[in-house]
Amino acid sequence: MTITTQRIATEVATRTAREYLRVSKGRNRSTKSTRDQHADNLAAEMDHGPWTWGQPYEDTGSASKYARKVRDDFEKLLGDIKSSAFGEPGDVLVLWEVSRLARETGRGVELIDACEAGGYLIHITSHERTYNPQNYQDRHSLISGINDAEKEARLLSARTLRGLNSAAREGRPQGQVPFGYRRDYEVVDGRPRPVAQYPDPETGPLVRELYERVAGVNGKLPEPIYAISKDWEERGVIGKNGKTFTPQSLRSMLIRPANAGLRKHNDALVPEQWEGWTPIISRELFDRVQRLLADPSRRKYTGAHIQHVLSMTLRCDVCGGYMAVMTRNKNGEKVALGYQCHPHGHVWIPKEETDRIIIGDLEATDPVTGEPKPELGVILTYLSAPHRVARLSQRPAGGPEQDEATVELGRLRGELEVLEAAPAPKTARASLRHTAAMEELETDITALEAKLAALTAPDPLAGILPDDPEADLIAWWKSADVQRQRAVAALLLTPELLGQVRVKRSPVKRNAAPVTERLEWVTAN
User: Bridge-partner residues for 338, per DSSP?
Assistant: First the structure.
């Protein structure tokens, strides 16, 4: 053996190989499938090695762009390759087949680029070949394989959608029977086939009750999902599995489009909805609940524990945490009631003066005459404006902004339909442009749909304040319970309306600074 041959043999022997193992399905099949991939990869070493095997990367889930589950180890693999933590130049990424890597051309090319920059090789066991991304022909072969995998994934998605659309037009339900529904079957070719679905007279009303309680209909306040879960448990309400409903299972029920006779494909509502169905709830109620669930600042106003209007609505300016009512004692006696930073105790501010400034005092009297002299704070001043109820309770009328958004949404949807119906691109570069264009349109459509929903949604206060447009809101506030007062205060004290109120630390000792100087109103503008 010559010196050169010996050096090459030594370099090959010191290469490290790390596998990326992925299966689309979980449960029992996943372990066996990854084990089979690993066995085939080990066998490939005899012809293409020798390799020293490093720690593998392993995921369970689809590599398609339509996948809902994040592939954690794929992201780790990509990060390791980019940061050189994968290994030394010349080390090998081993895949059972190229579709294991990605069925989205953009992500696959990103990883190939990273391997090229890091000097790593890619071995595809099913191809019986090791590729060098720095070689133009090898790079083309890898990208073409990923492009073909993406094409198959999109073709399968299109076929699935056509089948579901056909079933929807014929009123044939798919999948498992959702809680709250019943289903009729008929025997076709010796097998039972679903032909109709309708609300179950026993469980259907429970589903409707859930939506109405979360949304707060008929003048009632929205209820937290946790409280409904406990109530159903006490009432003995159980699911098809014989178990009680957890808050998580109730939330899953709330986002199920089938309850409104709707359906989704790849997490997006599709035009062809179920024909011949009698939905459990209306589309309007379903959309209303989705907006509530999507609001990260959603409050829970119901419960006997609520005693103070501004508690858990004011914010600490130091940490951003909520302020709760706390009593200060001295020598065993109550000294003062105030709002204190709930998580950490950063700040404290007297409650009575704070309430007077932010809310007002309807029981105040003239210190000289003793006659009633109500004081209106920021909230009551806002509510005392003429015709406030009429404006808050109305659904926004279609204006230029709404009309423009509607037209633009129609245009974008039309462009997306043209791209979806277009023949598959023949080259990797064209496929990348095609995919990027579709993703950009989908992103713009999602943003416009959200904007249009906000433009046409009624004000959240409409479900709490009285329906009478001539109602005296000051009198209503005076007679309302604390839960409703807190609901209004929490909705008004936001950056988009009156401003989020943050309590600053007192610049002098013993919180002696005036309350007005310690309240900061943070607005969205």
Answer: 326, 350
Query: Looking at the structure, do residues 215 and 244 belong to the same domain, yes or no?
Result: yes
Instruction: Tell me, yes or no, whether 153 and 222 share the same domain.
Output: no
Q: Do residues 174 and 200 touch, judged by C-beta distance below 8 A?
A: no
Dig out the tokens for 522 from the structure: 């943070």
Write the single-letter amino acid at 338.
G
**Domain shared by 321 and 280, yes or no:** no
Pair (116, 8) in one structural domain: yes
Element (H, E) at 201: none
How many beta carbons lie within 10 A of that of residue 144, not counting itself? 15
State how far the Cα of 472 lies from the Cα of 478, in Å rounded to an integer: 10
Looking at the domain assignment, is residue 429 inside a domain?
Answer: yes
- Tell me the sheet residues that pair with 89: none
Task: Write out residues in the chain with pLDDT < 50, as ranges.
Answer: 1-12, 26-31, 63-70, 300-301
What is the distance between the alpha carbons of residues 491 and 473, in angstroms, rounded to a whole number? 15
Q: What pLDDT, on the 0 to 100 scale, is given for residue 520?
A: 93
Residue 353 is predicted with a pLDDT of: 92
Q: Does residue 217 belong to any structural domain of this protein?
A: yes
Indicate whether 116 and 248 sit together in one domain.
no
Token pair of 130 as six digits: 């090791």
Omega of the bond leading into 50 within 30 degrees of 0 (cis) = yes
pTM: 0.46
Residues 450 and 458: beta-carbon distance below 8 Å: no
Q: What is the CA radius of gyration of the chain?
A: 31
Residue 173, domain member (yes or no)? no
pLDDT for the residue numbered 410: 75
pLDDT given for residue 356 in this prediction: 93
The residue segments making up the domain with residue 441 are 400-455
| pLDDT for position 331 | 64
Strands (E) across 281-342 are located at 315-316, 323-330, 333-341
Q: Residue 290's domain is classified under what CATH number?
A: 3.90.1750.20
Evaluate whether residue 301 is within a structural domain. Answer: no
